[in-house]
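Hi R.,

As promised on Friday, here is the backbone we talked about, encoded as structure tokens. Could you run it through your design pipeline when you get a chance and send me back a sequence?
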């Protein structure tokens, strides 16, 4: 069964391309159903985050998967192809292990991707697209990630996107204690950012979300206020720092809105971070004076600056992954032998039943039991050895030595040693 991964990430594609192929969490199960129904694969899982969109497939064709992805996202395959990578079998296994362990992340060793991968697997299970092969692949990926984190320092002192946002804000505002911070959204990334900003003890924090109840839930934990998204136009001028990460398919804040905000603030600076894919804030906002807008790719450049201190642990992590890739491939190859083993056992069982039926008929006619048992054992032996014996007799001179060695190995013959 063919196993492959296909996708793009922050290394192969810019944000403008990544946001076009991103799948929303709410639409993931529907997409998985469509993928398997279209038959590019029999098993499938989709990992879609702000930094990557990847299809993991079993029993399918990469070209068909590419065509499906482009069609589903209403893109021209020719526009998408330059940014995509296709990873067959061993490379796909290694990639899955590296992703789970945080070795393929924008922030080396960051733990968030493991949770996102588990969410992707859960969605595939709920959609009914996760079969034996992919289930085993991801379960092994989780185990590899745990081993890497336990036995290496790859996760120590990790600089997260949230920490990078705080660091950037500190460049604009010398003291965050005097700042008012607005978080748009209430998901995991916003929660991480809010936690980091809360540690700086800003003057005030507010959580804005489409659902007020969810905003209130997060706000209570942060000792912050909660508002609805529809209140943003009136409330935006109050905030010095805006961090946004929602699942909206369209921008929430545009250039016109921010022009009015800057005017209302009398040109006091506004620091904005857009962590969403697709983007929540129109890129043109960055053209405004007194607005400092950073995208997820911008933060990636900041966090990569602290990459070197953790790079010394990569070799050890890669060694663990190499070993686990070999183990998984052995399992995979063993699965490919299952049909042959099953057929071999079926053939032996067929011979056994035939000889047993013959023996029972002879016993029913009053034949000597000892003679019947002798006949059964001889008949069964002849049937089981007929095929390998015939193959040896019919082998050509070039084949004979190799075949003789294989038979000796299979039947543990001394003559083959």
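Update: got your reply. Pasting your designed sequence below so it's all in one thread:
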């Amino acid at each position: 069964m063919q196993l492959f991964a296909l996708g793009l990430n922050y290394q192969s594609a810019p944000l403008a391309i990544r946001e076009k192929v991103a799948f929303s969490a709410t639409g993931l199960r529907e997409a998985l159903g469509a993928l398997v129904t279209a038959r590019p694969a029999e098993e499938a899982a989709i990992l879609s985050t702000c930094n990557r969109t990847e299809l993991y497939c079993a029993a399918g064709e990469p070209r068909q998967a590419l065509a499906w992805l482009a069609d589903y996202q209403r893109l021209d395959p020719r526009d998408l192809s330059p940014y995509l990578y296709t990873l067959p079998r061993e490379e796909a296994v290694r990639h899955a292990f590296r992703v789970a362990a945080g070795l393929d992340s924008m922030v080396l060793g960051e733990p968030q991707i493991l949770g996102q991968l588990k969410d992707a697997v859960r969605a595939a299970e709920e959609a009914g697209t996760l079969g034996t092969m992919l289930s085993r692949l991801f379960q092994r990926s989780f185990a590899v990630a745990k081993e890497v984190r336990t036995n290496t320092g790859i996760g120590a002192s990790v600089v997260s996107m949230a920490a990078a946002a705080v660091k950037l804000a500190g460049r604009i505002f010398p003291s965050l204690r005097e700042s008012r911070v607005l978080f748009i959204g209430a998901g995991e990334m916003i929660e991480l950012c809010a936690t980091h900003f809360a540690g700086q003890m800003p003057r005030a924090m507010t959580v804005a979300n489409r659902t007020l109840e969810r905003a209130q839930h997060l706000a209570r934990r942060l000792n912050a206020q909660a508002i609805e998204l529809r209140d943003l136009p009136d409330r935006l001028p109050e905030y010095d720092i805006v961090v946004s990460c929602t699942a909206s398919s369209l921008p929430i804040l545009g250039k016109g809105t921010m022009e009015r905000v800057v005017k209302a603030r009398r040109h006091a600076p506004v620091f904005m971070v857009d962590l969403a894919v697709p983007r929540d804030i129109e890129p043109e906002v960055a053209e405004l004076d007194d607005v400092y807008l950073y995208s997820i790719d911008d933060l990636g450049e900041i966090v990569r600056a602290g990459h070197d201190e953790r790079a010394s642990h990569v070799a050890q992590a890669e060694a663990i992954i190499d070993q686990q890739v070999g183990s998984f491939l052995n399992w995979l190859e063993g699965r490919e032998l299952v049909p042959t083993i099953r057929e071999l056992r079926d053939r032996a069982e067929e011979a056994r039943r035939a000889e047993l039926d013959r023996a029972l008929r002879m016993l029913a006619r009053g034949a000597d039991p000892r003679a019947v048992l002798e006949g059964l054992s001889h008949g069964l032996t002849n049937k089981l050895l007929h095929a390998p014996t015939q193959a040896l007799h019919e082998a050509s001179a070039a084949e004979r030595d190799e075949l003789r060695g294989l038979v000796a190995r299979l039947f543990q013959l001394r003559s083959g040693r």
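One thing I noticed while checking it: The mean pLDDT is 91.

Thanks again,
M.
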